[in-house]
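Suppose a colleague, Dr. K., hands you the sequence of a protein chain of 229 amino acids and asks what its three-dimensional shape might be. Before reaching for any lab equipment, you can write down a predicted structure in C-alpha coordinate form. Begin with the sequence itself:
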Amino acid sequence: MQEQDSRATSYTTLASGGDFRHELEIKRSRFITVLRRAGTEEEARDLVAVLRRGFHDARHHCSAFVIGPDRSIQRSSDDGEPAGTAGIPMLEALLKRETTPGVSDLSDVSAVVVRYFGGVLLGAGGLVRAYSESVSAALDLAPLVRRSRLRICSAAVPHAAAGRLENELRDAGTVMAETSYQDRHTVLRIAVPDHADAIAAASDRILQLTAGSAGLTADGTEWIDEPLT
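The predicted structure, expressed as C-alpha coordinates, is then:
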Protein backbone atom coordinates (compact mmCIF):
# COMPACT_ATOMS: atom_id res chain seq x y z
CA MET A 1 0.00 0.00 0.00
CA GLN A 2 1.34 3.42 -0.92
CA GLU A 3 1.51 6.21 1.66
CA GLN A 4 -1.14 8.24 -0.16
CA ASP A 5 -3.55 5.28 -0.03
CA SER A 6 -3.22 4.69 3.71
CA ARG A 7 -6.08 4.88 6.18
CA ALA A 8 -3.90 6.78 8.63
CA THR A 9 -3.35 10.47 7.92
CA SER A 10 -0.54 10.85 10.46
CA TYR A 11 1.90 8.82 12.51
CA THR A 12 5.09 9.27 14.53
CA THR A 13 8.57 8.44 13.29
CA LEU A 14 12.23 9.24 13.88
CA ALA A 15 13.45 12.68 12.95
CA SER A 16 15.61 12.80 9.83
CA GLY A 17 19.33 13.25 10.19
CA GLY A 18 21.03 9.89 10.60
CA ASP A 19 21.04 6.81 12.80
CA PHE A 20 20.52 6.99 16.56
CA ARG A 21 22.66 4.80 18.82
CA HIS A 22 22.33 3.83 22.48
CA GLU A 23 24.15 1.21 24.57
CA LEU A 24 23.28 -0.80 27.67
CA GLU A 25 25.40 -3.24 29.65
CA ILE A 26 23.49 -6.06 31.33
CA LYS A 27 25.44 -8.68 33.29
CA ARG A 28 28.60 -7.93 31.29
CA SER A 29 26.83 -8.33 27.91
CA ARG A 30 26.84 -5.21 25.72
CA PHE A 31 23.57 -4.39 23.96
CA ILE A 32 24.17 -1.74 21.29
CA THR A 33 20.88 -0.47 19.84
CA VAL A 34 20.82 1.44 16.56
CA LEU A 35 17.62 3.06 15.29
CA ARG A 36 17.16 4.20 11.71
CA ARG A 37 14.27 5.86 9.94
CA ALA A 38 13.26 3.52 7.12
CA GLY A 39 10.43 4.04 4.66
CA THR A 40 10.90 0.72 2.86
CA GLU A 41 11.76 -2.84 3.81
CA GLU A 42 14.97 -2.55 1.78
CA GLU A 43 16.08 0.47 3.82
CA ALA A 44 15.27 -1.35 7.05
CA ARG A 45 17.25 -4.44 6.09
CA ASP A 46 20.16 -2.31 4.94
CA LEU A 47 20.73 -1.26 8.55
CA VAL A 48 21.24 -4.90 9.53
CA ALA A 49 23.76 -5.37 6.71
CA VAL A 50 25.67 -2.23 7.67
CA LEU A 51 25.91 -3.25 11.32
CA ARG A 52 26.97 -6.81 10.50
CA ARG A 53 29.96 -5.29 8.74
CA GLY A 54 30.60 -2.67 11.38
CA PHE A 55 30.29 -5.09 14.32
CA HIS A 56 31.49 -8.22 12.56
CA ASP A 57 32.85 -9.76 15.77
CA ALA A 58 29.54 -9.55 17.68
CA ARG A 59 27.64 -12.75 18.37
CA HIS A 60 24.13 -11.48 17.49
CA HIS A 61 22.59 -8.76 15.31
CA CYS A 62 18.90 -8.99 16.23
CA SER A 63 16.42 -6.79 14.42
CA ALA A 64 12.86 -5.54 14.16
CA PHE A 65 11.14 -2.98 12.00
CA VAL A 66 7.71 -1.52 11.35
CA ILE A 67 6.92 0.37 8.16
CA GLY A 68 4.03 2.34 6.67
CA PRO A 69 1.42 4.80 7.99
CA ASP A 70 -0.83 1.83 8.81
CA ARG A 71 2.17 -0.18 10.13
CA SER A 72 1.36 -2.85 7.57
CA ILE A 73 4.93 -4.20 7.35
CA GLN A 74 6.28 -5.77 10.55
CA ARG A 75 9.31 -8.04 10.69
CA SER A 76 11.71 -9.34 13.35
CA SER A 77 14.71 -11.66 13.68
CA ASP A 78 16.28 -13.40 16.69
CA ASP A 79 19.53 -13.95 14.77
CA GLY A 80 20.58 -17.00 16.74
CA GLU A 81 19.15 -16.10 20.11
CA PRO A 82 16.55 -18.59 21.47
CA ALA A 83 13.31 -18.28 19.50
CA GLY A 84 11.10 -15.43 20.67
CA THR A 85 13.63 -13.87 23.05
CA ALA A 86 14.96 -11.00 20.90
CA GLY A 87 13.20 -10.01 17.67
CA ILE A 88 9.62 -10.19 18.94
CA PRO A 89 10.33 -8.26 22.18
CA MET A 90 12.08 -5.61 20.07
CA LEU A 91 9.14 -5.40 17.68
CA GLU A 92 6.68 -5.11 20.57
CA ALA A 93 8.76 -2.29 22.03
CA LEU A 94 8.29 -0.42 18.74
CA LEU A 95 4.61 -1.25 18.35
CA LYS A 96 3.61 -0.52 21.95
CA ARG A 97 5.58 2.70 22.25
CA GLU A 98 3.26 5.53 23.35
CA THR A 99 4.15 8.63 21.37
CA THR A 100 1.43 10.66 23.07
CA PRO A 101 -0.68 9.51 26.05
CA GLY A 102 -2.80 6.56 24.94
CA VAL A 103 -1.49 6.60 21.35
CA SER A 104 0.92 4.03 19.88
CA ASP A 105 1.61 4.97 16.26
CA LEU A 106 5.38 4.71 15.81
CA SER A 107 6.33 3.57 12.31
CA ASP A 108 9.00 3.75 9.61
CA VAL A 109 11.58 2.64 12.19
CA SER A 110 14.22 -0.08 11.93
CA ALA A 111 15.88 -1.24 15.16
CA VAL A 112 18.95 -3.45 15.43
CA VAL A 113 20.45 -4.63 18.72
CA VAL A 114 24.05 -5.81 18.47
CA ARG A 115 24.98 -8.08 21.37
CA TYR A 116 28.45 -8.82 22.64
CA PHE A 117 28.12 -11.80 24.98
CA GLY A 118 29.64 -11.15 28.40
CA GLY A 119 29.91 -14.73 29.61
CA VAL A 120 26.85 -14.72 31.87
CA LEU A 121 23.74 -16.54 30.65
CA LEU A 122 20.62 -14.40 31.02
CA GLY A 123 17.98 -17.07 30.50
CA ALA A 124 14.95 -16.68 28.26
CA GLY A 125 13.21 -14.17 30.52
CA GLY A 126 16.37 -12.15 30.95
CA LEU A 127 16.93 -11.98 27.20
CA VAL A 128 13.36 -10.83 26.57
CA ARG A 129 13.77 -8.03 29.11
CA ALA A 130 17.22 -7.07 27.83
CA TYR A 131 16.21 -6.73 24.19
CA SER A 132 12.95 -4.96 25.02
CA GLU A 133 14.65 -2.55 27.42
CA SER A 134 17.44 -1.85 24.92
CA VAL A 135 14.99 -0.63 22.29
CA SER A 136 12.83 1.23 24.81
CA ALA A 137 15.85 3.02 26.31
CA ALA A 138 16.98 4.10 22.83
CA LEU A 139 13.50 5.41 22.01
CA ASP A 140 13.46 7.36 25.29
CA LEU A 141 16.27 9.52 23.92
CA ALA A 142 15.66 9.41 20.17
CA PRO A 143 14.25 12.53 18.44
CA LEU A 144 10.72 11.92 17.12
CA VAL A 145 8.49 13.88 14.74
CA ARG A 146 4.88 13.75 13.59
CA ARG A 147 4.54 12.79 9.92
CA SER A 148 1.24 14.03 8.51
CA ARG A 149 -0.47 13.65 5.17
CA LEU A 150 -1.41 17.15 4.13
CA ARG A 151 -3.52 18.28 1.21
CA ILE A 152 -1.73 20.87 -0.91
CA CYS A 153 -4.10 23.65 -1.96
CA SER A 154 -3.38 26.67 -4.16
CA ALA A 155 -4.83 30.14 -4.60
CA ALA A 156 -3.97 32.61 -7.37
CA VAL A 157 -3.74 36.16 -5.96
CA PRO A 158 -2.53 39.53 -7.30
CA HIS A 159 1.20 40.13 -6.97
CA ALA A 160 0.65 43.24 -4.86
CA ALA A 161 -1.38 41.32 -2.27
CA ALA A 162 0.69 38.13 -2.12
CA GLY A 163 3.13 39.21 0.58
CA ARG A 164 0.42 40.46 2.93
CA LEU A 165 -1.69 37.35 2.44
CA GLU A 166 1.23 35.02 3.01
CA ASN A 167 2.13 36.81 6.26
CA GLU A 168 -1.47 36.66 7.49
CA LEU A 169 -1.69 32.96 6.70
CA ARG A 170 1.57 32.23 8.52
CA ASP A 171 0.45 34.29 11.52
CA ALA A 172 -2.72 32.18 11.64
CA GLY A 173 -0.61 29.00 11.85
CA THR A 174 -1.12 27.88 8.25
CA VAL A 175 1.59 25.60 6.87
CA MET A 176 2.90 27.23 3.71
CA ALA A 177 4.15 25.18 0.77
CA GLU A 178 6.04 26.50 -2.24
CA THR A 179 4.98 29.90 -3.65
CA SER A 180 5.28 30.46 -7.41
CA TYR A 181 5.28 33.72 -9.33
CA GLN A 182 3.60 33.81 -12.72
CA ASP A 183 3.06 36.59 -15.25
CA ARG A 184 -0.36 37.74 -14.04
CA HIS A 185 -0.52 36.51 -10.46
CA THR A 186 1.21 34.79 -7.58
CA VAL A 187 0.19 31.25 -6.65
CA LEU A 188 0.17 30.69 -2.90
CA ARG A 189 0.26 27.03 -1.88
CA ILE A 190 -0.78 25.91 1.58
CA ALA A 191 -0.82 22.52 3.29
CA VAL A 192 -3.84 21.52 5.36
CA PRO A 193 -4.91 18.24 7.02
CA ASP A 194 -6.28 15.86 4.40
CA HIS A 195 -9.94 15.87 5.35
CA ALA A 196 -12.96 17.79 4.07
CA ASP A 197 -13.55 20.01 7.11
CA ALA A 198 -9.98 21.32 7.13
CA ILE A 199 -10.02 22.01 3.40
CA ALA A 200 -13.36 23.83 3.69
CA ALA A 201 -12.06 25.95 6.58
CA ALA A 202 -8.95 26.87 4.61
CA SER A 203 -11.07 27.82 1.60
CA ASP A 204 -13.24 30.07 3.77
CA ARG A 205 -10.13 31.74 5.20
CA ILE A 206 -8.80 32.52 1.72
CA LEU A 207 -12.16 33.96 0.69
CA GLN A 208 -12.22 36.19 3.77
CA LEU A 209 -8.65 37.40 3.34
CA THR A 210 -9.17 38.22 -0.34
CA ALA A 211 -12.72 39.63 0.02
CA GLY A 212 -13.99 36.81 -2.16
CA SER A 213 -11.62 37.48 -5.07
CA ALA A 214 -9.58 34.27 -4.80
CA GLY A 215 -10.69 30.69 -4.43
CA LEU A 216 -8.79 27.67 -3.19
CA THR A 217 -8.05 24.67 -5.41
CA ALA A 218 -7.21 21.33 -3.80
CA ASP A 219 -4.31 19.57 -5.49
CA GLY A 220 -2.35 16.47 -4.48
CA THR A 221 -1.08 15.35 -1.08
CA GLU A 222 2.35 15.35 0.54
CA TRP A 223 3.70 13.77 3.70
CA ILE A 224 5.34 16.43 5.84
CA ASP A 225 7.31 16.18 9.07
CA GLU A 226 6.07 18.38 11.90
CA PRO A 227 7.32 18.82 15.49
CA LEU A 228 5.61 16.74 18.13
CA THR A 229 3.36 18.90 20.29
